[in-house]
Amino acid sequence: MKPLQRAAGHFQRGEYDQVEQICGRILAVDADNARAWQMRGLAALHLKQFEKAVAYLTEAVTRQETPQTLINLSVAFLALDRPPDAIVALQAALQLDPTNPGALLNLAACYLREKRYEDAEGALTRALAIKPHWPKAMEMLGRIEMKRGNFERVTQLANAALAADPALSVSHRLLADIAMREGDFETASDHYELSLKNNPDDAETHGNFALLLARRGSYQQAETWYRHAAEILRDDEATNQAFAEVLLIQGNLKEGWRQHAWRHMRTEEAQPIVDRPFLSDMPSGARAVAVLDQGIGDQILMAGLIPDLSRRIAGLEIECDPRLHALLRRSFPGVQFTRFIMRAPGAVPTPGSFGVADTAPWLRPRFEDFPAHRGYLKADPVLQKILRERYIEKSRGPVIGISWATRRVKLGAHKSLPLAAWGPLLSMPGVTFVNLQYDSDPAEVAEATRQFGARIITDTTIDPSGDLDAYAAQVAAMDLVISTSSAAAHFGGALNVPTWVFVPAGFGGLWHWFLDRGDSPWYPSVRLFRQTQRGEWQDVVARASADFAIYVEQWAARNP
């Protein structure tokens, strides 16, 4: 038997080290043997020796340029995260054979990696014209449509691909992702399990399945899956941030804070603040720039760290959302605040700056380290008095601020509770309600007023999403705030206004409310009313309305 035939036999049996040895001996005698170079390169690919694979396959191409050798070379380039080089190799393969479906499929994969979705779609369209109903091509088209948000088309393509090949793991993952998005957690779970059965090492599926478990409230299981996914997807921001939130919601502050700081570790040069001798070794009078980032609720939450941080850093400057600038300057007069234009979540506006949240490992390492404050935000006292008098003038009972919806994030629907479900609260006699909801629907408010006989004031002089300083004064003018998990809840807690927050179980139950507690370590004035069953609000409203009746009675006794 000739040496190359022996090498081919070893290759078919998966004995790639033997292939490497035989081809090496052949090439020592015949350095221009293109087939030996190609087989040696394929063996290196299977051994995951990708640099060697590129070198060997390049030698093969220089001696005999064939479409398949170029396709194999593109695979090695992709494994080394070199899509542009892979594209060049595949374009050369298609010049030799314009109707090669494998080259077109790999080219589409490269374009997809480079986020060139139109080019990827064009390559796949050509591949399907040559090889109709090709499952792998339909699956990849589904991935492109998923990026575009065309979920109906994704479902069609994934189902068609699975009808031809039920073992396509990515198609199962796509269907699972859509089912999870639609709240069909059982179907999502079934498809994730099938995806992992066919590809147990797919990190993205591990991460998405962990997200599903977290949304179902199975946090310990989610943590297990995230540990595996985060080990593989080291550079994936969404996976690492979701892992941090799963740790934090369970009260694992030490590990959770460290993981949470990952969002500012995007380059090899970046060093997490928890690895710097920062707060423990700050020179006297040093200047430091910190950032309040994420959404408005997150910025208010983390502003509770500023008093401790400012005591440790004399020259503290904090960048914040412009809408919070006036409120924060009044609340923390010894700190310099700088406005910044909103950037992507997690972005650090000033080089060398750090997130205020990233100081939590020092300032809030244990629940015992959360201060029993009496409010750290200070509303405009003049405007607060004006608004208080305005609302009291129209009321003979307590003035209750209400907020019921989160509209601008995809989990908003799971945190929201339509006014139509607030009946037992809104029908309480002798109470004046003030609409604290941003982007409220006048028709929804009018219908609740008619249906429950409620008195609901919508103060058009206050912009709840634009003028946050005025909004803080409005919240501070309340006797009590009742809110779903929204910015209104954070304003109430940070201003030390008695605040009741409706917290969903699973998806929508944000990490900073933690688990199984009726209070908030962040805000001493906040009470939490939690769902006992995911998606079920009736029990929450019943418990809150029973306590509300007592509250109104006690208020009346104090204010005869």
List the helices and strands and how they pair.
Blueprint: H1 3-12, H2 16-29, H3 34-46, H4 50-63, H5 67-79, H6 83-96, H7 101-113, H8 117-130, H9 135-148, H10 151-164, H11 169-181, H12 185-198, H13 203-215, H14 219-232, H15 237-249, H16 253-260, E1 287-291, H17 296-303, H18 306-312, E2 315-320, H19 325-331, E3 336-339, E4 354-355, H20 360-363, H21 381-393, E5 399-403, H22 412-415, H23 423-426, E6 432-435, H24 442-452, E7 455-457, H25 468-476, E8 480-484, H26 487-494, E9 499-503, E10 526-530, H27 538-558
Parallel strand pairs: 1-2, 1-4, 2-3, 5-6, 5-8, 6-7, 8-9, 9-10
Structure report:
This protein folds into 3 domains: 3-220, Alpha Horseshoe (Serine Threonine Protein Phosphatase 5, Tetratricopeptide repeat); 273-369; 381-558, Glycogen Phosphorylase B (Rossmann fold), CATH 3.40.50.2000. A 6-stranded parallel beta sheet has the order 7-6-5-8-9-10, sandwiched between helices. The protein has a 4-stranded parallel beta sheet with strand order 3-2-1-4, covered by helices on one side. Helix 4 runs antiparallel to helix 5 (67-79), helix 6 (83-96) runs antiparallel to helix 7 and helix 10 (151-164) packs antiparallel against helix 11. 54% of the residues lie in helices and 8% in strands. The longest helix is centred in the C-terminal third of the chain and has 21 residues, at 538-558. With 560 residues, the protein is α/β, with parallel strands linked by helices. It has 27 helices and 10 strands. Helix 19 (325-331) links the parallel strand 2 and strand 3 (336-339).
